[in-house]
Amino acid sequence: MDKRSSRIGKGRRGGLALIVECAVDEGKPSVRSKTYWNKDRGGADPFEIPKRVASGIEACQSSMHEDGAVAHPLRYIWMYITEAGLRQDGEHPQSEDLLGLDGWLNVIDESASLGAEWMVVYVGASLSQVPYIWEVCAWAQGVHGLRVGLHLTSNCLSEDDIERLSRLDPEKTYLVADKAHLASLRFLESKGIRLCEANVRATERDTYCTKPEEMACVGADGRLFSCGLVLGDERYAMGNYRDRSLHDVNSDDSLPHAVPDTSAFPPSGCDACPPLMAMHALDKEAP
Ligand code: SF4
Q: For residue 257, how many other CB atoms are within 10 A of its CB?
């Protein structure tokens, strides 16, 4: 095992540990991870080294699967990136409790190392309330090749939002919006921005839903829940991302990796659920 791969299993937040190690191997200053790569590097592919790191992570992931260490393959990330995403339980986290840019990038790194392919980010009514949202999306797409859905609960987009949306990878970007808003957002399609209906019908979800097995659902303060339908419900709490790796959480069968009776909740509670959004997007793209 070479120096780089020997670090893969040791970092609690494996992705960040790998990035630092890789930068050393390249003879560059060590702490150049995310902020550095988000700057203009004079025409060079800013994701060149991170992409190679991602390949290392994927190699590591394969061996982890061979060892049977991952109980459930992770395919989806559901990120409640705004403070508003946690208010269902009446708690108002302090700003220092929120994950912030580096925290979210680490969630993405670790989820990708476990196999994540899709990510849905709840942004609430306005994209501009999360200034670093564009860095988060660019990192997920550029480094890990994830498809990204931005769940907007209004039809309010500024010129700057549209410009920045247009700069993301058009093959991997979806604006996820309520059916009631889609008509007024259709003009975005002429700019290459794909739309995806957020609404989930009762017939689309299983009564006993096991989709959380494949998903990491992370609240603004790092708390983990089975999925967005039960965000803030202590019966479905799975600890905090800061305290426990996603691999650990994902492998722990004592945690609630299913919602046993979805009929107890309104279908709208499942709106923007990542595996269902992936189906909506792929249905729309089918010839
Ligand atoms: S949001 Fe609904 S469909 Fe998605 S995992 Fe939760 S219960 Fe299942």
A: 21
The answer as to whether 61 is a domain residue is no
Does 15 fall in a domain?
Answer: no
Compute the radius of gyration of the chain from its Cα atoms. Answer: 19
Between the CA of 85 and the centroid of ligand 1 the distance, in Å, is: 16
Q: How far is the CA of 211 from the centre of ligand 1 (A)?
A: 6
Express each pLDDT in 11-21 by its tens digit: 334 444 344 33
Element holding 112 (H helix, E strand):
helix 100-113
Q: What spacing in Å lies between the alpha carbon of 67 and ligand 1's midpoint?
A: 29
Give me the domain span that covers residue 194: 74-285
Mean pLDDT of the chain: 80
Q: Strand 173-177 relative to strand 194-197: parallel, antiparallel, unpaired? A: parallel
Count of structural domains, the chain: 1
Instruction: Return the pLDDT at 284.
Output: 73
Give pairs for 233-239: CB < 8 Å, separation 24+.
233/88, 233/89, 234/89
**Residue 155 identity (one-letter amino acid):** N
In this predicted structure, the answer to whether residue 133 has a pLDDT above a threshold of 50 is yes
Give a yes or no: residue 78 inside a domain: yes
| CB of residue 212 inside a 6 A radius of ligand 1 | yes
| 192 occurs within a structural domain | yes
- 211 Cβ inside 6 Å of ligand 1: yes
The rounded Å distance from CA 268 to ligand 1 centre is: 10
Write the residue with the smallest CA distance to atom 8 of ligand 1. 209
Determine whether 136 is exposed, middle or buried from the number of CB atoms within 10 Å of its CB (0-12, 13-18, 19+). Answer: buried
Q: Which residues contact 287 (CB under 8 A, 6 or more apart)?
A: none
Q: Classify the C-alpha dihedral 149-9-250-102 as positive or negative.
A: negative
Nearest to 270 by CA among 105, 78, 86: 78
- State which ligand 1 atom lies nearest to the alpha carbon of 273: 4
The residue type of 262 is T
